[in-house]
Amino acid sequence: MPQKPKTYFNWSSGKDSALALYYLQEQNQHDIGSLLTTVNAHYDRVSMHGLRREVLETQAKAVGIPLDVLEVPEKPSMEEYNTLMENKIEVLKSLGYTHTAFGDIFLEDLKVYREKMLASVGIQTLFPIWKRDTQELLQEFFELGFRAVIVCINNSKLDASFLGKELSPALIEKFPEDVDPCGENGEFHTFCFNGPIFANPIDFEIGEKVFKTYDDPSSKKSTIKFGFCDILLKNDSSS
Q1: Are strands 188-194 and 6-10 parallel, antiparallel or unpaired?
Q2: pLDDT digit string (tens) for 67-117?
Q3: CB neighbourhood size of 145 (10 A)
Q4: Both ends of the chain: CA-CA distance in Å?
Q5: pLDDT given for residue 1 in this prediction
Q6: By percentage, how much of the chain surpasses pLDDT 90?
Q7: What own/partner pairs with CB < 8 Å and gap ≥ 24 does 94-99 have?
């Protein structure tokens, strides 16, 4: 039999990544040898999601795929980020990786950026859930037994009451009409803690909720307020 292409998966720790990884594993056409996650070195947390590194490590252990972390500074420029990522990819290439996969659904400009950047360094890209209807995708997420909680919200799109809540069909019904069911426009981010790709669920509790204001990259005069919900491990979930 021909050897399966060695593939690393860009793991965000959230629901889209979990579902995309599930479909990729079901296709059984790639050797998925690594989960690559970007971590803010200043906070020691997953970028955008705000998930503690130790929770990320416990999650990856439950998934059963080795974790590889790309550390970035507190506020990296795009040039700094690209340089760090290119260096990481060169290491992955030296280990035999030829493909990579993402959980993107319909952000065309982001997909094009990823494809161009990775093609320039000789890595082929995979998008297992690309262009799927997000309402149907989320329904499949629930039907397959996946579970996730909202750990980050764009406060201009969702109010604080959604932070720390477990995703469910009933909760999605409460979303404002302009919020995508999968949060594909950055309305919210999640932490996936159980499902068919996990050997065991992650035992955790909800910690502190904080709100931070950032400069809006699309406008020099505007700011964006985000809410973050801390996830705390209760015990060793692998025991």
Answers
A1: unpaired
A2: 999 999 998 999 999 999 999 999 999 999 999 999 999 989 999 999 999
A3: 10
A4: 37
A5: 65
A6: 89
A7: 95/6, 96/6, 97/6, 97/7, 97/8, 97/33, 97/34, 97/123, 98/5, 98/6, 98/7, 98/122, 98/123, 98/124, 99/5, 99/6, 99/7, 99/8, 99/30, 99/123, 99/124, 99/125, 99/126
CB-based burial label for 51 (10 Å; 0-12, 13-18, 19+):
buried
CA–CA separation, 116 and 36 (whole Å): 19
pTM above 0.90, yes or no: yes
Q: What is the pLDDT of residue 228?
A: 96
* Token pair in block for residue 98: 């030829």
Q: Quick check: 236 pLDDT over 60?
A: no
Q: Which CATH architecture has domain 6-233?
A: 3-Layer(aba) Sandwich (3.40)
Enumerate the domain spans of the chain. 6-233
> For residue 225, what are its two tokens?
């307020």
